[in-house]
Amino acid sequence: MASGVISPANARVKQPKKERMLFQTFKRLCQNKLAVFGMIVIALQVLLAVFAPWIAQYDPVVQNLPKAQLGPGAEGHFLGTDNYGRDMFARLVYGARISLLVGVTSVTLGLLGGLFLGLISGYYRKLDGIIMRFVDLLFAFPGILLAMLIIAMLGTSLVNVVIAISIWSIPTCARIVRGSVLSVKKQEYVMAMKSLGASDLRIIMKHILPNCTAPIIVFATMRMATAILSTAALSFLGLGAQPPTPEWGAMIAAGQDFMWTAPHMTVIPGIAIMLVVFAFNVVGDGLRDALDPNMELDT
């Protein structure tokens, strides 16, 4: 058989090898107890978000003033009610849906923008300076202030929060991708593809991008924590979700005036934010270690 031609037998070997690598990565990830705890918390949030209408017994926005400010453990409201008599558990469950939706959407948009800028900047040296100066301009603003500036221009809504957080995510992602591209494009197989006349698009999409996925996955996971925390912070400041939307940050803002009479209104959504942000961070740390090719499985 002529050299350079891949036989069907060799083609079939590639898939089991990829599956074996995924299994080894998952096995290394499961050896990290904190990462396992984080995955359980994230799985619970996803379940709450997807099945919110079936899990919650009450409408999260319907008021019931005679039952206002019931404490945790009250009959029919095991997490209590807020100052308008709305069930705290129902609002917490629906808040998980909003946090997850905003986080996934904003991180995805930020990844797309960062991937594009990072790939172009890393591969084409002539465009590197221009793109990186634009990225440096975005870095000149503290993240939360940049998000507040964007929302101030666009208006207060969850859609604008998604836009603000996605723009905030672009420069960091672009820097990470650019660094990976600069390293990968010096490899011999990339040089070989260039000498064979392969197009730049084929080299970038088929040979460079797949070898940059590990840092991108880690960034996306840890950025989810930042996105959820930022959404809560902006809603707390009145720039994100507006009443009566059951968003965790907005729930804390509504409960701050009742810290002494009904502390559960602030404590419960605060614990939810803390657990989810912690979960995404530890899973990101675990993925960073598991995707490290220098890591060895414990035997």
Automatic annotation (TrEMBL):
Primary localization: membrane
Key word Lyase present: no
Entry's transmembrane regions: 34-56, 98-122, 134-152, 158-177, 212-238, 258-283
InterPro entries, per database record: BP-dependent_transpt_permease, MetI-like, MetI-like_sf, OppC_N
Name this protein carries in UniProt: Peptide/nickel transport system permease protein
Protein family (similarity comment): Belongs to the binding-protein-dependent transport system permease family.
Keyword Chloroplast attributed: no
Matching CDD domains: TM_PBP2 (cd06261)
